[in-house]
Structure formats: C-alpha cells, structure tokens
Task: structure prediction
Amino acid sequence: MKVLITVTRTLTLRLTIHYTVLEIETVLKSPTPRPKSLYSPCYERTLQATGYIIFEEEDETKMATSKEFRVAGKDMVDVICNYLNNIEERPPLSQVRPGYLKDLIPSEAPEKPESWEDVKKDIERVIMPGVTHWHSPHFHAYFGTGNSFPSILGDMLSDAISCIGFSWIASPACTELETVVMDWLGKMISLPETFLAGEQGLGGGVIQGSASESTVIALLAAKMRMIRKQQEIDPDLDQFDILPKLVAYTSDQSHSSVNRASMISSVRMRVLPTDERNALRGDTLIEAMKKDKKKGLLPTFVCATLGTTNSLAFDRLSEIGPACEDEDVWLHVDAAYAGSAFICPEYRSLLNGVEYASSFNFNPHKFLRVNFDLSAMWVKDKRDIVGAFFTDPVYLQHGHQGSVEDYRHWQIPLGRRFRALKLWFVLRMFGVEKLQEHIRHQVKLAREFKALVMSDQRFTIEAEVILGLVCFRLKGTNTQNKELLDKINKSGKIHMIGTELKGRYILRFAVCAATTESCHILYAWQVIQDSAIEICDGVNSYKNGGTLSNGANGTAEACISPD
Result:
C-alpha cells in the first residue's frame, strides 16, 4: 500500500490514504534521510513503490515550482492589464523628488523569501509613484516607445528560454529567426536586395539594442575598413598612425549619440550646418570633405539622419549618397523614429537614396508596436562589420562556423537575447496592414494637433509636420516659451519637452501612445491654451508669424523637394 504524506512546518499530517497510527509512527522514526529533492517524479515513484512515505515541507513564500509560477504569472498578467487599461488616470510625468524610493524599502535585501503577495503590494506603493507613463495617451514627449501584447508575449517566451545567443550553436532558432524576420522587415520597407541576407547574399540584418549602438558599430566598422585600406596601400603603416587622419561627418541636427559614437571610436567628427529645412545637403558635405583632403585627412564616415529628433528633418540622401560613393566613404543612415513609417507606400519616398548607404538603421521599438529594446540594422557587406569585431576563442568555436551566422561578430557585447521572438510575434499577430493603420492613425492625430495650433494666432508652426511630431511655439521670447512648457508639465495633465531650433526655443508635441485618440489631442490643446493665458499678455504685441504646410494630400513631398 502506498501513501503520500505532506509534513508542514507544524508537523500536521495530511494523508491521501489513511494508515494506522503505528505505521505512521514507524515511518516518522525511520533513520532514512529526507530526499534532497522532493520534486523528482522518478524519486517519488520509487518511494511509493517500496511503501515509503514522502515528506514535504510546505513553504508558501517560495516560487520554486511551475505550479506556484502559474498562480503568480496569471496574477501578474492581471496587474499588467489593469495598469495599461487605467493608465490614462495617472499623471503622465512622475511627480516624485529625487531619492524618494530609498525611504520606502529596507536598506538591505531580505534574508528570508518574501511572498508574491507582499511583492505585488509594493508595485503600487513603491514603483508606480516613480514611473513616468510613456504609454499614457497624455504622454507627448521625446518620441513614443512601442508596446503591445504580442510583443510582451514574445519577451515572456524569450525570458523563459533565456538563451545567450552569441553563436548559431548556442541556440540555432535564436540566430535563424533573427535572419528571417530581419529580411521580412527589410522587404516591408522596400530596402534594396543588397541589404538582405537572402540565400547567399553579402548583406543582412541584425538586431541591436538601440540606434545609438548601431551608429557606434557602423562608425567602428568604417574606421577599421579605412585602416585596412590604408595598410593595403602602405603595409608599414600602424593603425595608430592612420587613426588621427580619419574624419567623420554629420549634421548639426543629428542625435547626440552620433557625437558619442565619435568619442567612443576616437574618430574626429565634423558637425556640418543644415539648410532652412534643417536638412544636411550634398554640397555642404562635399565642400567639407574637400577641405579635409587638402589637409591630408581621410574622409571615412558620414551619418545622415532621416527624421531628426529636434524637428523630424530629413537629410538629402539623394545628394549625400553620390558624394559618399565618389569618395568611397561609409554612409550610415539613422532613421530611428521615422523608419517604421516606410512600411507605408506614401512615405517610402523619404528613404530614396538609401541605395548609396553602407548601413541603415531604424527602431521598431519606437513606432512599430515592438517593446524596447529592438533596433533593426542592415549592412550591405557583412564582411566589413564582421572584420571589425571578429574574435574566435576556442571555447566559442563550433562545427558549423563559416556556413552560418554568428551574431557575436556583428555587435559589441558577446551575449544577446532572443529578441527576434517579439518582432516575429508582432509581425504575425498584427500583420503589415494593421501596422500601417497604426502609423497612419498617429500621423492623422498629429495633423489634427497642427490644425489646432494654426487656428490660434498666438502660436506658430516651426517645422514641417510629416509624421507624428508637431514643432510649435508662442509668438514670444525663448524665455516665455520655456515658461509655457514649465506650466504645462507642472499641471500634471500632459507631458511634453522642448528643444532649440536655429536658436529658437520650441515646444515638441509628439503623438506617442498607441491608445491616443482625437479626444486626447483636444484635451492636450486645451491644457496648452490654459497654460498660455498667464504669459500671453506680452505676446500679443508680436506680429502673427507664418506657418508651413504639408505637401499635396498631406504627403511628404514638401519635405523632400529640392527647393
């Protein structure tokens, strides 16, 4: 006769089959040591077959089994759904002061396990007061960051598999799915085939953590390509003799991460002026490279931006590209935010000229419903990027090297997460059509906000409204516009940021959350108008400023026209 008895910390006996008191006492007095693992099915079956009784200490505070995780996991899904469903009720910008959290939790980690219920209580008490709610429909700062339930599901599976996909053999699915979905994504934006892995192409895509990483990687690859090129001309040259001669170029509107890439790579960066539309032009670049060549320097790298952070300006790839091709300079195209819009045919023209690029990058985690972090990067010739980062210690070698991709050679860190899963889930569960609808809806909302601004003679539009960003300001001083932004954010009703554009302080209104609707646009405009009342007495004396308009039918043609 077999029995399963569980002994709790209070030694209460629970029997599935009743034994006599004598039989139970005999087992309790047995010198047989307690099993090290009570969760082994094989061990349990052995004990039951021999008539032994299995003892198990119950510890409700531990999450040691899948049974306990199922309970907490389902509870956590409820927490997530409740948070997202009610996020609109929270102030979008956190109202806490620096150092708020340390007073809410102990100064040392707990010695004993705590229950999930206790941890869950502290989500609202400790964490939520210090969260800025990026997915609130009242959040209009920076650019949006992606979020969707399919993406969350992909991250859940990635966390459960928890592989470190530095090479193909480390988890073949991790590598091969990434190669496939990056080709999917490249085809969605009509990238030239030279950027795709295909069957045996030299190009290919890789998932990085951010656009900042992609720029660093592109610059380091360009640096090493130029060094190798110079060493082929003169084998006696050391790379440290060549490095001081290398020059990179970008515009005065490019992201701060481009300058950081220069710092990391030790390649000097020329910051070039932009035109009246805040775009870098080809003639400006050509003139800068000519000057540097006369000084004996080596033009090596250009970073062009499609959709700048300040005003969503688009550098002229059709002019910059040929200039880079003529000088054999690496052209990297950063389309961190705007790139997702290229899946819509009406915005694909903004990408014209990418055929001249050596590398291209955009962030699906900004505008394509994919949760951070997932930055898509493509290169025309993977040999350049692999050549810059290749190391091959014995402990990382495997029998399929050379015939498969090992993505550790395409990035700075060794390890990498299974990020392709969430992109795969999003592309399959939304489909291209639903993602296009999302982008078009956010652009429509931005144009609704633009119309509201243009209807108020106190304000001016400061840049073309092409996608989901509207740049505007009061017809007043920079100080007054800073005061306006401060009042808006202190209201706790919406959150925005400002920036400087050609010496003028402007306010940026970005459509960020996927749940944003027309009612939220109207609400935000009302908050802005109310905040402006107190500081507009000195503004009325300013003449009404002009406004910029979109191209025909609201397309991007006005942005990319040469004149």
